[in-house]
Write a structure and sequence with these properties.
single chain; 3-stranded antiparallel beta sheet
Length: 220
């Protein structure tokens, strides 16, 4: 008689059938209580989404993380750093000049303005206002000082300002290479790859002024 697979092995089989599951779905499929499913998940290893209030789970071997430790699957976001707040703290901590809300939203493909405000009020992030927007910084004194020095040297674009010829060219290059990017994501890529800070609103107005008929997808 062939022995039945253990609950953790059955859990792995479920993840091979479908990449992402909610906890209640797994409990129903396995026929176990939620507390037991959580124990099985710990045994096999998993990642929990930082989007959708952490409702979705995936097997530890499923994500193909990018260099920021992020993985997106059908509108869901997963991070090797854990929760949304932990991921934001990590991304800001590794940025030489900190990050704005638009830059973070572009990387995360998820709005984070409210979370940033909460983290700042709780003293878990510092921030500096430049050109009408906040640049969020790490709270560690030494790192904070270095980020402030770097941020002071950046010419953060005024959202009302027109794009320079060179910046407009880079925007078009990013759009041609990745037509599905949102304005926030294009701005984040220019900051990361070109060290050029430009407001997402300026990019949006550039498309409107030149009748480019582009409506990028909003971050998930």
């Amino acid at each position: 008689m062939t022995p039945q697979p253990s609950p953790p092995e059955r859990l792995k089989q479920l993840f091979h059938r479908r990449t992402c599951w909610r906890l209640d779905q797994l409990a129903e499929a396995l026929g176990y209580a939620l507390i037991s499913v959580r124990r099985f998940l710990k045994q096999i290893g998993y990642f929990r989404s930082y989007t959708d209030n952490g409702k979705w789970y995936t097997f530890r071997d499923s994500p193909d993380f990018d260099r920021d430790g992020l993985w997106h699957f059908r509108g869901l976001g997963f991070s090797k750093h854990g929760s949304l707040t932990a991921t934001i703290s990590y991304l800001i901590g590794r940025s030489p000049a900190g990050l704005s809300a638009s830059q973070l939203s572009g990387k995360l493909q998820h709005p984070c303005h409210a979370v940033l405000t909460q983290l700042h009020k709780a003293g878990q992030l510092d921030r500096l206002q430049l050109a009408g927007q906040f640049q969020y910084l790490a709270p560690d004194p030494q790192l904070n000082r270095r980020q402030r020095e770097q941020a002071a040297g950046l010419q953060l674009a005024d959202p009302r300002a027109s794009l320079s010829t060179q910046t407009a060219l880079w925007v078009l290059v990013e759009y041609i290479k990745n037509p599905g990017l949102s304005f926030e994501q294009i701005a984040a890529r220019l900051q990361e790859q070109r060290k050029v800070s430009v407001a997402a609103q300026s990019i949006q107005r550039f498309f409107q002024e030149h009748d480019l008929k582009k409506t990028p997808q909003a971050p998930s």
